[in-house]
From TrEMBL, chains A, B, C, D, E, F:
Biological process terms in GO annotation: Mo-molybdopterin cofactor biosynthetic process
Positions that bind substrate: 75-77, 112-113
UniProt subunit comment: Homohexamer; trimer of dimers.
Record keywords, A-Z: Lyase, Molybdenum cofactor biosynthesis
Residue intervals of the Molybdopterin cofactor biosynthesis C (MoaC) domain: 15-149
Catalytic activity, EC: 4.6.1.17
Family under the similarity heading: Belongs to the MoaC family.
Domain of life the protein comes from: Bacteria
Identification of the protein by name: Cyclic pyranopterin monophosphate synthase
Alphabetized CDD domains for the sequence: MoaC_PE
Active-site positions on this chain: 127
Length: 156, 156, 156, 156, 156, 156
């Protein structure tokens, strides 16, 4: 196991020096779930047709959040992202799964960007539906896969 | 069950009109977990003494994120928060639980602020430790309790 | 005609002192248009059904921009908005009109917030469609109506 | 006509994948107008000498807004800009025209950045003068010219 | 001497709970200096007439920064400011002094806002002139006076 | 002495055109001090052990601020930073000195980023301790060293 790399010689946090790392194509895929009352999920799907589209708002929130990663996560480098895409699917009649894919061509990876996009999309679903279901649960959020850079390929 | 309130008469998203709601004291408590290798959790605790303090960074990230809620979650109102506090504890040798408490005196509640603070603290732990453990899992994120406002008291 | 109120005794810009102004309910309505090839407008409407919803993205962008007004317009006060709503309609086969309504209960008005929401929604339409029509024109952006505060009611 | 490229296979918005596009020098020029009472324009020009400089504030607002483009326009990539310049001129005794030029060396163009800079400069003029003239009109905002990248040269 | 109030029972940072504090009118005045080559100061003053206005840019930067205080300083509450004003004067042929005044009607004070406005105005002067004088010194930055709230009046 | 480069042919501010500058490895080191009552400094050090860690908050604030430089300083280019590190030491029983080091591989330097990190770390110390010592003084803030780029090496 490697050392934790985010601390300096005063044992304080630093932004890791990546000046000499190579620019390579990188991507990361993350996922997460939100569980709710079947009635809530029903409303979301009806909504898409009749009342408005909860998932469209969640999609945009996730994409925009990915671009704010370095403002929110203290030791993250700013990374100009080259692509962000988000998909939703129902697991069953109580669960929506979000899958995010983030790409870049840069010296560091975009794992945090992908997870943040997933978290934000899920929280936006919560926000849009909380008036009818405050007990929703956000769960199983993790990196699915990443590639590019020195540490190479990872699958969960 | 109430209607989804975030859509207008064109079935598009809107920021709900709260102009005539009463200002009251409100709080929300949220929680979430991050699961990791026992070795990773060990390093975090050692780190607190010898190498730096992962949870101190996560704490600050969570507090600062709570203040950015209305920038990240599309239909959230800007709420001047009157207090944010965050606690961490170990569940067992593989899990850290975060608990956040957010307070305000305003026309809408701070559930989303509390959950976002929890999510961001957990993702910061992931970011600080990902070099040694990319397979960490963020899970069981939910509102624990809220009070204040027309919808009254809620516990999960 | 009143004096320009945004300058100090060194003839430099300042944020106008509103400390002693009264909190009142206020709203502002703004509008603007984007003109395009009939084919582009056609695609937007088809898109709503078959390919995705340009106006849903524009709607969310406009609402989120309204919340960023004080970060973008140098002398604007931060105003906690109590509601934002946006509507789109076709004028004819080449023009979409956006109408925004912003509300607050505060010491200053939300005219700039309403216009910024309109401008951002229109620019988002441009961005989403520029691959097929770079010659779109954003035009006729103005305040339609505002009410509340010392200066009272205004209609264009 | 090309396809609208901002939608994924679920017909939802995505940030277009530009990972494999070439880095080239690019620029975009945009323009827009604000129409007002002749007395207002008069005050702006007097102001420059006696009371403060409305256009100096508008200039800075426009430049700073160009840097925020990817935070405001949902599907825009973050682009490190290499230059931003803004000019104002009077068309006649009721109209100020703004012209913006934005440059980069990147994989995507800066059309949106140039238009956003123009819109923000114009809205700042409105904000600085609204106490004396709420009926100002922002109009004729469009891309003037762009160059660089696969789609090549464009003039309005 | 009072306790440091920014730490919780886990000895970690928190945003202090101000839910029950009274809303009162408050202001804070801060100051700071930047020292430079006499030739640099000369250029700034010439610039005002012939080439552009360094202090106009610094003024706007300071005002806009005051509005971002809660995003930058981790434990600061978001405070809707009711006024910001900034003045510059020469101390002698090598020094510019900035004085900032920030006002609010809120539950907490605006000392940090006033100091941040001063620091940002001074750093903007540095940025605008660094091509001709990298050795400038920012110094003597402090709160001058504040009033309002439980802790009452303070002068340096 | 070179010309002030931040003004255009209308004598207004612009973001300098760096499109054709070469990408090189660059760094900047900055410093600054905060002076306080000996009792305050004592509390900070005690705090590290018993009550919480003021400098840990200041460290993170400084690093996060460096990433926001182009949002705060009007004519600064956005620069993807490749590393940020911050150290604190006591000069004597009334003074903490901060030293920041910022790195990038880009077309412009990071002097402003380094100074802003120092200023923000110092202001965060002020904020965390102001309840016990409002008379703290931030002073001696300057660039210490920079390297890389056409202007080459500089030491204060």
């Amino acid at each position: 196991m490697d050392e934790l790399t985010h601390f300096n010689d005063q044992n304080r946090a630093k932004m890791v020096d990546v000046t000499d790392k190579k620019i390579t194509s990188r991507f990361a895929v993350a996922t997460g779930k939100i569980k709710m009352h079947p009635e809530t999920l029903n409303r979301i799907h009806e909504g898409k047709i009749k009342k408005g589209d909860v998932l469209a708002v969640a999609q945009i929130a996730g994409i925009m959040a990915a671009k704010q990663t370095s403002s929110l996560i203290p030791m993250c480098h700013l990374i100009p992202l080259t692509g962000v895409d988000i998909h939703f699917e129902d697991d069953n009649d109580t669960t929506i799964t979000v899958t995010t894919k983030v790409k870049t061509k840069h010296v560091t990876g975009v794992e945090i960007e992908a997870i943040l996009a997933a978290q934000t999309a899920l929280l936006t679903i919560y926000d849009m539906c909380k008036a009818i279901d405050r007990g929703m649960l956000i769960t199983d959020v993790h990196l699915v896969e990443k590639d590019g850079g020195k540490s190479g390929h990872f699958t969960y």
